[in-house]
Fold this protein.
Amino acid sequence: MKHLTKIYTCIAAGLLTLHTLSAQKRIVEHRVKDNETVYSIAQTYRTSIEKVFELNPWAKGSIKPGDKLIIYTGADYKKEAPNTTASPTTNTATTVKTQPQQDKKGNKHRIEAGETLYRIARNYGVSEEALISANPGISAYNFPVGLVLNIPKSQEVSKSNNTDTTNVRTEVVKNIDRVKVLLMLPFRKATRYLEFYQGFLMGMNDLKKDGISIHLTALEANEDGDVTNHIFNGAIQGHDLIIGGINDEQASIIAQANHTGLYIVPFSNATNIDNSRLIQLNQDPSEVISRVIPEFINKYRRKTVIFARRDEDADDAFSARLKYALRDAQINYQVINISSSSLSLMGRDVVVVPTTPDKDLALATMQSLGNNRSCSVFGYPQWQSYGDAFLRQAHQHGTTIYTTFFFDKNTSEAKQFLTKFNAWYNKRVTDSYPKYSVLGYDVARYFIRANAAYGNNFINNGSRLPSDGLQMDIEVLPSKTHQGYTNSRFYFVTFEQDGTTSKQSL
């Protein structure tokens, strides 16, 4: 039996054993060098051996060159982090959010792309119910861009024994003593899983500030057999939330185990697992397409759809199913071979959809459009990973893509996260799609908060929970492909011609 690695982290209201970081204390990632010991590393960072073992209990056995340790730096550790972009003062300042000013009669607010009911209510200091009451007909699902909202007068949240259940923070303090979380991942196997864990810790730190108490158990699981061993030894029992499984086999093992918690699968999108307690975040592509197509038809109903292809291109699942849906909705479409025909003369009543997500086909389609900036282009999630040069082309044509993940590094919230991550871990977030650190952050903030507010019944209270994340919006609904649940949210992301990017959460 392989060595069991456990990290126990308790976060209580007013107590954070992972230490609330000050301007003089940070978490860094240290790569072990030749001849280094745990003692010498602890001395280097002005911390104790016990603190090193707290986040790296596997190191009690042995460490070797190349191993990565997460280290708390001591208060007198003065070494500056390379590539740190903000001073402590700046970092502190960026975490402060100001609310819009209101007069006694209330304000007006025009809904912008990417905004949600929860976010606007939070920004103006009002409840979602008050906002809905002031604007009959709106809801979390009926929230059209451009609509002008009446903003009621803000009210302070009562901290007494108020029975109102609309405010998550109030419920958290009243109802749940501690959320017990199990994280089971191969932390030492790949950087992305370590970064997921690091982002998860940052999300936990934010929740601590809201008075949420958390007990985290992190288990190293490099192989499928490790998962089986953890389950056999009873490590999976007694947790409210179980998060882990990096492939279909591991997800199946965990889902079939005997436990009472909710199992959240952040990576695998297996469709053959039937478990009423399973929540799949990485949505099955078929389910995503089923949700995207009605929104596409609603958005482009008054336009002619042009499918662009070359001699060698076939239809992928999205374009094939979209053609069928357009025929069913009696909406005209055409198929144009751009190897022999140009799209440069297409007008404003046209939206162009390449038949596959292939990068070369996308570039050939944009080249065929030439200087034509009047028609729309619609594309695929993969396009956001094709690099800056490709995205500049996408901006020129006002391109919209559908995707379940999107991280806009230019927003203030994203900049705050990137700066904080750099300050905590002395490194930059890996440039990947998706960004695993941000995924961990979003998962921690949504599911721990949800469980703290409603217990495992939060699945039936999704509309009352904040769903907007930095990279992934979350709303859990019954899956169409398996017995459990799946995240139902996705984005339409538009790369505007003025160089900005807008995001519509659907």
